[in-house]
Amino acid sequence: MSAAPAYGEDKGGSAGPGEPEYGHDPASGGIFSSDYKRHDDLKEMLDTNKDSLKLEAMKRIVAMIARGKNASDLFPAVVKNVACKNIEVKKLVYVYLVRYAEEQQDLALLSISTFQRGLKMLRMMVASNVNQLKPWVESPG
After folding, report:
1. What is the pLDDT of residues 2-16, one digit of tens each?
2. Do 54 and 86 contact (CB within 8 A), yes or no?
């Protein structure tokens, strides 16, 4: 007579010794490894030239933070996107920075030049918009 495994003992598909366990995390958008490479897909998305992929990655990261997951290892990849032209990505990057800048003070200090580049781009965008509006605002004299 064979005994059936107790509830919770047989999860099926468990990894062997030395192999990473896999699970499903809705915030990461797919299957991830529980080892240190679990955020590689998000890092790749943040490093692309496509704003849509960057936006999707930032949404996933902010969702992870909202659920209490640790996303501090993504700090360098996220900070690089401060200078992104997409305003939605930029807003989510600032949400991330508000959460992790205090924990990652050294990296935050090293990334000041990236912030300055982002502000310079914003300043140029505002200046170009002001120049376009000047003829409409100026009153006939």
Report:
1. 455 444 444 444 444
2. yes
Calculate the CA 26 to chain-centre distance.
15
Contact 71, 65 (CB under 8 A): yes
DSSP 61-72: HHHHHHTT---G
> Which range has the worst mean pLDDT, 45-54, 109-118, 132-141?
132-141
**What's the Cα-to-Cα distance from 65 to each of 84, 108, 115, 120, 125, rounded to whole Å?**
21, 18, 22, 29, 30
Q: Contact 84/49 with Cβ under 8 angstroms?
A: no
Report the C-alpha gap between 69 and 32 in whole angstroms: 14
In degrees, rounded to 5, the angle at the alpha carbon of residue 96 between the alpha carbons of residues 21 and 84 is 105
For 14-51, the DSSP string reads ---TTSPPEEEEGGGTEEEESSTTTTHHHHHHHHSS-H
Q: Which of 125, 93, 85, 87 is nearest to 111 (CA)?
A: 93
